[in-house]
Write a structure and sequence with these properties.
Structural class of chain A: mainly alpha
Distance between the termini of chain A: 32 Å
Distance between the termini of chain B: 63 Å
Mean pLDDT of chain A: 89
CATH topology of chain B: ABC transporter involved in vitamin B12 uptake, BtuC
Number of domains of chain B: 1
Oligomer: heterodimer
Strand content of chain A: under 5%
Number of strands of chain A: 0
Shape of chain A: globular
CATH class of chain A: Mainly Alpha
Largest sheet of chain B: none
Low-confidence stretches of chain B: none
Helix content of chain A: over 70%
Order of helices and strands of chain A: HHHHHHHHHHHHHH
Low-confidence stretches of chain A: 341-351
Largest sheet of chain A: none
Helix content of chain B: over 70%
Radius of gyration of chain B: 19 Å
Chain lengths: 351, 291
């Protein structure tokens, strides 16, 4: 899956540089960056429990990362991961708390429902782009907020639980079983790895994957090559949105057990963009970068507790990694001995 | 229920107060986008403006707060401009990175300086009426600059057809840098209003999506200052009404909250008069590239 290791040279360098730059912030706050990063490392990989927590956060990140990466490969920018996460999560939760079924039907049904609902939601932006030429970035941003308010309304009104904590509890039969006993890590991890393989296979070996990539290279050339643009734009965004929807589904079926009444964006959708960029839109790269971002999320909390450094330094690290990955010239400005041809990415294709 | 309990003068005040940040930030968005640079970093710059405005007022006085906010806002916008104009990175990605950075930095500093993760101490600010008057003046000024001066014509031309402008000897880069920095100043000023006018302290992630509503107002106003002003007033009114109706069970507040976004999608789809973004939006200019 990782044919060209050189491709990951820039992301790895970017991560190191971001840690060094963020270290300056830590020094300025009168703390030792090495102590901080040691706490960060121990908090994310130090023992079985912290490792399981890191992997738990990796699950939704892989899905939203794949979601963004798949759309990028098709030349589309899906920044609606947050909204698709909520729509998919709510739908899966609805199936989870409404029906009573045996687990081996209930879980797949709930996940499928989450996938389909989020697919349809994202396909709306695809349709508006394909038919009316409205840029998907603006519409997916708008759909994020609409989803937030819609789901907030649903769990506080028609689907309000008597406890007042949100939706009713998801039935036992729909909850994702634990992968490691005594931890919160659930079998979603295995499902996600299978899904990663499927996405990789689609892109690499199927005719549809070929069309997606052709569209990503050049929509005009793809159209000359008799590739149906309208159908593909809708399908790419639908599939991409569905993946983010599964992320939300697993969060509610595997971690929270209900949809809480006070909702805000989970951040997984936006982090998915960073994950895809750092993973170079390659499914295996997405898994590795999800592990990094999952570790930052988990370790950040421990670092705040043990080294008294705000866990929000993690946000600073993340932003720096993104900037350095998309503008590798900056790395070359800082480290002038690196000479390589520039390969900036411009993801927005001309209409 | 008595309708006059809801529709009265204090609702109009509240609507005005809530539209001020939208008016300022959407005007900033217009400058940046008309020159051809997408700026979804408005949200993050607004948050930085709110934090540094509070900081300046805490250590010195409210005016210093506003100046500090504007300086930080223009530096952040300069970063966005460098990334999108010089390094030709994807402008959406750069905007997202700045938004993430702003959340991280403000929360980090809040914890570092005040040992708080929720909100800052109370600080002195200015009355909201001052901001309201300034916002209206700036909109009229923006309208005048964009549509009645040679500079405005250049800005719009650069956004529509950079190559033609290049042939005419217009410095595209200079215009774009200028416009992105103007957008940063306005977004930061609108952020300073949040912590030094609307409220008198900084709270965690207090921009709360207003940067994105400002983008919606910009689109709804069809990239025109006066249009965006009306859109901002309308969205501010929806927000005020939402606060008023909360818990009264008439119209779900969530529905009113989502109106700006729904309207934006409808307008972009061309159902009520099609909105056209500037032609070169989001595309970095590369003189060596043919068309």
């Amino acid at each position: 899956m990782l044919k060209n290791w050189k491709e990951f040279f820039i992301p790895i360098l970017a991560i190191f540089l971001a840690l060094i730059l963020a270290g300056i912030f830590i020094i300025l706050s009168g703390k030792n960056p090495l102590t901080a990063y040691k706490a960060l490392y121990l908090g994310s990989f130090g023992n079985i429990y912290s490792l399981s927590e890191t992997l738990l956060k990796t699950i939704p990140l892989i899905l939203t990362g794949l979601s963004v990466a798949f759309a990028f490969r098709g030349g589309l920018f899906n920044i609606g991961g947050e909204g698709q996460f909520l729509i998919g999560g709510f739908t899966a939760g609805f199936v989870g708390f409404t029906f009573s079924l045996p687990s081996f039907i209930h879980i797949p049904l709930a996940l499928l429902a989450g996938f389909l609902a989020a697919s349809l939601y994202a396909a709306l932006a695809g349709y508006l782009k394909a038919r009316l030429g409205v840029h998907e970035v603006i519409n997916t941003i708008m759909l994020n907020w609409i989803a937030l308010y819609l789901v907030t309304y649903l769990v506080n009104n028609p689907f309000k639980d008597l406890s007042g904590m949100g939706s009713p509890l998801i039935k036992e039969s729909a909850l994702l079983p634990a992968l490691i006993p005594q931890s919160r890590l659930h079998i979603g991890l295995l499902i996600v790895l299978i899904l990663t393989f499927i996405v990789w296979y689609i892109l690499k070996y199927t005719p549809w994957g070929y069309e997606v990539k052709a569209l990503g290279f050049s929509p005009k050339a793809a159209e000359y090559g008799k590739i149906n643009l309208v159908k593909n734009i809708v399908l790419i965004l639908a599939f991409s949105g569905g993946l983010a929807g599964i992320a939300g589904s697993m969060e509610y079926l595997g971690v929270l057990g209900r949809i809480p009444s006070t909702l805000w964006f989970s951040g997984y959708g936006f982090d998915g963009i960073a994950v895809a960029l750092v993973g170079k839109n390659n499914p295996a790269g997405v898994v590795l970068s999800s592990l990094l971002f999952g570790a930052l999320r988990t370790g950040g909390n421990i670092m705040q507790r043990d080294a008294q450094i705000s866990k929000d330094i993690v946000g600073i690290i993340q932003a720096l990694v993104i900037i350095l990955v998309v503008a590798p010239e900056i790395i070359r400005t800082i480290l002038p001995f690196l000479k390589r041809k520039s390969e900036n990415i411009c993801l927005i294709n001309n209409p | 229920m008595n309708l006059s309990e809801i529709f009265n003068f204090s609702l109009i005040y509240s609507a005005l107060r809530l539209s001020i940040p939208l008016i300022l930030a959407s005007l900033g968005g217009i400058f940046s986008e008309l020159s051809g640079v997408v700026n979804i970093a408005l949200e993050g710059i607004m948050l930085l403006g709110a934090f540094f405005g509070m900081l300046g007022s805490y250590y010195f006085n409210p005016l210093a707060g506003i100046i500090l906010a504007v300086i930080i806002g223009s530096l952040t916008a300069l970063m966005h401009a460098l990334l999108s104009i010089k390094y030709r990175t994807d402008q959406i990605v750069s905007g997202i990175a700045i938004n993430i950075f702003a959340v991280g930095l403000t929360n980090f500093l809040l914890f570092l300086l005040f040992k708080q993760s929720g909100h800052s101490p109370e600080v002195k600010g200015f009355s909201w009426i001052i901001y309201a008057v300034l916002a209206f003046i700036l909109v009229i000024l923006g309208h005048f600059i964009l549509f009645y001066t040679p500079l405005g014509l250049r800005i719009r031309a650069v956004g529509e057809h950079p190559r033609a402008c290049d042939t005419l000897g217009i410095n595209i880069y200079k215009i774009r840098y200028l416009c992105v920095i103007i957008s940063g100043i306005l977004a930061a000023f609108s952020g300073a209003y949040l912590s030094l006018g609307h409220l008198s302290s900084f709270t965690r992630e207090m921009s709360a999506g207003r940067g994105f509503i400002a983008i919606a107002a910009m689109i709804f106003g069809k990239w025109k200052p006066i249009g965006a002003l009306y859109a901002s007033l309308f969205f501010g009114f929806a927000d005020a009404l939402q606060l008023r109706l909360m818990g009264k069970g008439m119209i779900p507040p969530e529905f009113l909250n989502s109106l700006p976004y729904i309207f934006t999608m409808i307008v972009l789809a061309g159902v009520i008069g099609k909105a056209h973004p500037p032609a070169s939006i989001g595309i970095p200019y590369n003189p060596e590239e043919g068309e």
